[in-house]
Amino acid sequence: MAKNVSLNSTDVFNMIENTLNDFEGIHKSPDWFSYLWVLLGVVGMTVNALFIVAYSRSDNLQKPAQKLVNLAVDDFLISAAATFLYSPAQIIRVGKSVCLTSIFITNIVLIEQLLALVMITCDRYIAVVKPLLYPQIITDRRIKVVIGLSWIAAALIVSHNCLVSNTWKSGSKCLFSDIISRNGQIVSVVVVLTSGILMCAVYIRLMLIAKKHLRQINPELESTVYTEMRQQLRIMKTFLMVVGAFLICWGPAALRLGLSITGINTNFTKLLAAVDGAFLFCNPIMDTIIYVWRMPEYRKDFSNLFVNLQCGTNE
Length: 315
Hints:
Oligomer: single chain
Number of helices: 12
Largest sheet: none
Shape: globular
Mean pLDDT: 75
Structural class: mainly alpha
Helix content: over 70%
């Protein structure tokens, strides 16, 4: 006859504590997770490379994916840095110069991705709030200049953290939280969380404005304007999902840095230390999944790309 099993709150907390204790060994020996980062990096490079190739070969994809291709390039570079720099630095136990170089390059791409998301948010804001002036304000030349400035800004921010305020010690793990000073960590957490929350707020506001404009437009009399506004609304929803994925993937790392800054070192912190890198390097994969889901043009041209490659191989 089965016995009744009852759990009180103390038992539940003890179970959680024991589960978190299991991650202590992973935190001390992160090699297994480093191999996982390599795997995620290879997948991220592959899917984003396919997106970039599909974009370059398809005329139908040029307009809807114009703002996404820069993010795809950033995601590809992040995955490449995870595969060839950051993860090997954990496995091989490199010295100071190699470690700081891997962190430097990886974080430049990460920060540039954040700045790219902010730039796209500004672009969408102008497109909705000042649609008539948008072609005059947002030109190809200005886009290239802003992208170049974003790379320079990312390099300057990371240079300060890696070259000026690093706290490298002999035998240190090649992890951002172990190498970068407390002030550098505070700046990183504030910039990431503030940017993410503001971007979400802006996109939600813009979607409300776009929906209000849609209700005021007669689709029969102003079909062109109505179609364009629906296209803008779809693009904004896509970017809001990209920002949401960014917050989900960067959240564990930001939370761990925040706990580290305050001096809190619990088993939950060790759990975050074990999984935050995997979340970060999942971001390029999640972005591509969003592109495929939200963009029928990409699904169509992606299929055509495979058909063309297969036909070329058969010939």
